[in-house]
Design a protein that fits this description.
Blueprint lengths: L9 H19 L2 H5 L3 H4 L1 H13 L6 H15 L7 H4 L4 H19 L1 H5 L8 H16 L7 H12 L1
Helix pairs in contact: 1-4, 4-5, 4-7, 5-7, 7-9, 9-10
Length: 161
Amino acid sequence: MNEIENIPNEQEQLDFYNKLRAKLIQFLSSKKGKSNKFTKYLLFAPDLFHLMIKTMMDSDVDKKSKALIGGGIAYFMMPFDFLPEGLIGFGGYMDDIVIATMIINTLINKLGPGVIEKHWSGDEQLLNVLQKVSETSDQVVSKIPVKSAIANVIIRESKAK
């Protein structure tokens, strides 16, 4: 089965991106959003999602990498994951951000930064964003159930740095 068939269509992706961005901006302007310790990272969520979508469509990216990206896109859009947004609010996007960062770091190591950075539309430089998220990932990982396979991978990745 083609991995591109498994991801949401372009309109569903755009709708998700626009809704996420609008909800985050509204949340971050609230009192609770301003006091959230992960506030400065939460706005990376739509930018990282957008980056994965654009990279997925890049003809320079191999099929194995596209399968990895497709998994990251699907994880972002799942209503229930390790830190479900529906239950804990916008802080629930932190696991999505950490997973996306791991995927993007893997792609940069495999394909080189140029292939990935050309799709970045965030305000800060991509490598700076990835570094900031990586430095914070231990705090996020501590909230993910210890026995989960993804938590174990994240813990190994952060200790290897």
